[in-house]
Amino acid sequence: MIFRGTDTTALLTEWVMAELVLNPEAQRRLQTELDSAAATIGTCALADSYVARLPYLQAVVKETLRLHPPGPLLSWARLSTSDVHLSNGMVVPAHTTAMVNMWAITHDPTVWSDPLVFKPDRFLEADVDVRGGDLRLAPFGAGRRVCPGKNLGLVTVARWVAELAYRFEWVAEPEHPVDLSEVLKLSCEMKHPLRAKAVPRN
Ligand code: HEM
After folding, report:
1. Keyword Ligase: yes or no (predicted)?
2. pLDDT confidence bin for 51, thresholds 50/70/90
3. CA of 103 to the centre of ligand 1 (A)
4. Ligand 1 atom nearest to CA at 100
5. Domain span at residue 155?
6. In this predicted model, what pLDDT tens digit does every residue of 129-174 receive, in sequence order?
7. Is residue 77 part of a domain?
8. 73-79 and 97-101 strand pairing
9. Å from CA of 196 to ligand 1 middle
10. Per the count of CB atoms within 10 A, which of 16, 87, 88, 196 is most buried?
C-alpha cells in the first residue's frame, strides 16, 4: 500500500511539471485559474475539495495520466481461469497470463486524436472518467482490482501541482532540457529526472 501510493503520486507530479515546463501556455492558463481561485476564496491555501473543482487543473492531470500513465501495464500476472471470448472475436484461452497495455491504448491514434500532443483541452471538451469507468483511459485499472488509492492519488497530485504552479513559475534550464524519455521500472519513470528553475511568483 505504501509503495504503490508513493512512487506513483511522486512520478505523476514530476510528469505534470515536465509537461508544464515544455508547455508554457498551458502553465500560464493553469496559473490564471489558480490565481482566480485563490482570489475567490481569499487565501492562497487551496483546500483539497476546492482543488478538485478546478477544471483546467483536472484536465492537466488527466492529460498527463494519458501521456505518461505511471502504471502502463495493468493487471500484472493475472491468470484467466476459463476461456474468455473478446468482442473482437479473439479468445484468451484458460490459464493464460494476461496484461492490459494501457500505454498502447492511451497512445492509439484510433482512440485519441493527436495522441502524442499534450492537449489538456481535450478533457474540457469531453468529460472522461479516469477512475475506471472509461476504458480509453483507465490509468488506475478497472473492475475488482482497480487501484484502491485512486481518489487519494488524484487529489494528492492535483494539490501538489496546484501549490507548485501557484507559487512558482517553472522554466527550463537550457543546459538540462526536459527529456520526456520513459523508463519502465516498477512504475513508468522519467529516464532523465526533471530539472527546471522555480522562479517565485509575486
Ligand atoms: C496517481 C497515483 C496512482 C496511480 C496512477 C495508481 C495506479 C495503479 C494501477 C495501474 C494499479 C494496478 C491496477 C490493475 O492491476 O488493474 C494500482 C494498484 C494498486 N494501487 Fe494504485 N495508483 C496510484 C495511487 C495509489 C495510492 C495513493 C495508493 C494507496 C494509498 C495505491 C494503492 C494501490 C494498491 C494497494 C494496489 C493493488 C490493488 C490490487 O492488486 O488489488 N495506489 N494502482
Report:
1. no
2. confident
3. 16
4. 16
5. 2-71+117-135+147-200
6. 999 999 999 999 998 889 999 999 999 999 999 999 999 999 999 9
7. no
8. antiparallel
9. 28
10. 16
Residue 148 CA to ligand 1 centre (angstroms): 6
Is the pLDDT at 77 greater than 80? The verdict is no
Give the mutation target among 8, 75, 157, 184 for probing the ligand 1 site: most ligand atoms within 8 A of CB: 8
The answer to whether residue 104 is domain-embedded is no
**Which residue type, as a one-letter code, is found at position 73?**
L
161 part of a folded domain: yes
Residue 48: the pLDDT is: 74
147 is in an annotated binding site: yes
Give the number of domains in the chain: 1
| 183 three-class SS | strand
pLDDT cut 90: percent of the chain above it: 81
Distance 8 CA to ligand 1 centre (A): 8
Phi and psi at 6, nearest 5°, equal -100, -55
Q: Grid coordinates in use for 152?
A: 487519494
Does residue 105 sit within a domain? Answer: no
Lining residues, ligand 1, CB within 6 Å: 1, 4-5, 8-9, 12, 70-71, 74-75, 139-141, 145, 147-149, 152-153, 157
